[in-house]
Write a structure and sequence with these properties.
55% of the residues lie in helices and 13% in strands. The protein contains eleven helices and six strands. It is globular and about 50 Å long. Helix 8 packs across helix 11 and helix 9 packs across helix 10. By secondary structure, it is of the alpha/beta class. It has two domains: 124 residues, Rossmann fold (3-Layer(aba) Sandwich), CATH 3.40.50.2300; 83 residues, Arc Repressor Mutant, subunit A (Orthogonal Bundle), CATH 1.10.10. Strands 2-1-3-4-5-6 form a six-stranded parallel β-sheet, with helices on both faces.
Length: 224
């Protein structure tokens, strides 16, 4: 028996883009588009009527912008994942979105498979960002309270897994890593799962944060 498809609500003021994204999601994954609109008020109506698994919101949607809609969604008590989708790769926009309650920050030039993967991971409770935004998220997190370095955890990784972990820290997607290492996309995904399990992490974002923190800690130790 097939699993029940994930339901997604798309909120973007560009009709052509909305329709294209809807088609992409429904063709590439077990996803059903429960509704789509470019209106704030219609978005709130659809949210309460459809109760989607994921909401995708355009950051720059007029008249008030996607962040105001995000804040309204959270203020009305809806706790499901909301993903910001935008052309902006500015760290300030990323910071405002995450502080406003977004569970993810995606870019409109992402690979289609990465968008589908992000939607599925968001439903599992992961924080998801576009691969090219990973280092900016790391920078934001390090401005707060960086996690303690755990050198012993790194010793559990194979040489190949360490190599892939370094590429994750550079913000590369699974497809880009596969091309760089001349291995299959599925092999990269398997290595990433092993890395997360060995480091007791839940997402590739956490893995990237971990890798950067380890590198910075090593630099400090060499300077001492």
């Amino acid at each position: 028996m097939n699993a029940t498809p994930l339901s997604v609500l798309l909120i973007d003021d560009h009709t052509l883009f909305r329709k294209g994204l809807a088609e992409l999601l429904e063709q590439r994954g077990a996803i059903r588009v429960a509704g789509m609109t470019g209106s704030h008020e219609e978005a709130m109506r659809l949210l309460h009527e459809e109760q989607p698994d994921v909401v995708i919101v355009d950051l720059n949607m007029p008249p008030l912008g996607g962040l105001s809609l995000l804040r309204r969604i959270r203020a009305e008590g809806w706790h499901g994942p909301v993903l910001i989708l935008t052309v902006s790769d500015a760290e300030e926009d990323l910071a405002n979105a995450m502080r406003g309650g977004a569970q993810g920050y995606l870019l409109k030039d992402m690979e289609p498979d990465d968008v589908v993967d992000a939607v599925q991971r968001a439903v599992r409770g992961e924080t998801v960002v576009a691969p090219s935004m990973t280092l900016k998220l790391v920078h934001l997190l390090q401005g707060g309270s960086p996690a303690d370095a755990k050198e012993s955890a790194l010793k559990q990784l194979t040489a190949r897994e360490r190599e892939i972990l370094n590429h994750l820290a550079q913000g590369l997607s699974n497809k880009a890593i596969a091309r760089m290492l001349d291995i299959s996309h599925d092999t990269v995904k398997l290595h990433v799962r092993h890395i997360l399990a060995k480091l007791n992490l839940t997402s590739r974002v956490e893995a990237a944060v971990f890798a950067v923190e380890q590198k910075n800690a090593a630099i400090v130790r060499r300077a001492e």
